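Lab notebook, bench 4. Still working through the backlog of constructs that have no structural model yet. Next entry is a single chain of 440 residues. Request: give me the structure tokens for it.
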Amino acid sequence: MLNRREAIGAIMYPAAAAALGAYMPPSRMTAAAIAAAENLTAPPATPEDVARDEAFWFQVQQAFTVDRTYINFNNGGVSPSPAIVQEAMKRHLDFSNTCPPPIALWKLLEPFKESVRQRMARHWGVDTEEIAFTRNSSESLQICQLGFDLESGDEVLTTTQDYPRMLTTFNQRQRREGIVFKKFKIPIPAEDPSELLSLYERNITPKTRLILMSHIINITGQIMPVKSVVAMARAKNIPVIVDGAHALAHFGYKIPDLDCDYYGVSLHKWLFAPHGTGLLYVRRDKIKDLWPMMAAEEKLDSDIRKFEEIGTHPAANTLAIAEALTFHQGIGDANKEARLRYLRDTWANRLLKFSDKVTLHTSLKPQFSCGIATVQINGVDTQKLADHLYEKHGILVVAIKHDEFEGLRVTPSVYSTMEEIDRFCSAVENVIRNGIPAPA
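Model written out:
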């Protein structure tokens, strides 16, 4: 039996060997990783203790191949994958181009997708026949957004802070079909779940046919009361599409905990799966009545796989999700959640010491946020600050300029170091004290 540190090592070292060009048979690499994850004993420390164990996280950091001349604090956009995931994807892609592709893709590799589906379903507590693999959360959510029959005058409800691409999708349906797309404001930050529930309910009208809501608001990291909103809407026979792009593998929960019918996520953010991988959950009894975005045969009407009918596509991306899941399991859901909060709290609390010059648009209470937070330096243009951090310090953050607020969205990840957190804070503190330096 392995403890967690040994498990991470068992996952990391085969990956590191592959990254350095040393040969290890793929079957041995996969077996070592799976054995490490499936033979874990409970760690002797709490997740909060593990979150502060820099020796443990040093091993995690070595599993990645990131260029340390930069600091990537935009993992909420897209994360790098560990070496073991990169190697698996390359291995499958190489095979696809060595064996005749029609044989490799359709006869040999495609069937293995089912074992990945089984493992993902098992980890997040759903039926294997309820999850489809997509290319990202946008595709997952647009399948739902475009899959409902709506008529002119039907209303769709969401907040002004939901993801722009998803707003664009319903704006297009409004232009094309004459639906009514209604948006309302929520507090920033929001620390009263009953108030949020009330806002959704008060904005429902007799014409409301569909609700879109985020599990985590991407621009602030706000965790939303999904279960209560879904229950309220279900009582009124209104479906709710849940945008979980930033939630899955970010903090610990099972999809049934939300009791939702439709849930779309990206896997290249917090699960560290290959770029261009996503997941769509549809409750089994809802699959038949949801149209796929690309046409599927009638015999697939009740099959979750109808949402995967996109024509020729690589198998490598999907199959390498297995290694990403193994890596995630090696760290542990609770340990990852605690580490992400620890990193967030470290930089946020340090900057909040400048209380008159700093506004945090994210609650630090654990029930309302995790690793994502957005901070505003009062009197400093957010975009200019983001540009300064990148151009002068090699620090990548996101400038959020919303109609209702602005600030830097900061998203470190498990491979981020405390030294990088310190460098970020020092650079921002210098701007707080002295402003953005004038161009030389």
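Notes after review: The two ends are 59 Å apart (CA to CA). The longest strand covers residues 208-214. Flag for follow-up if needed.
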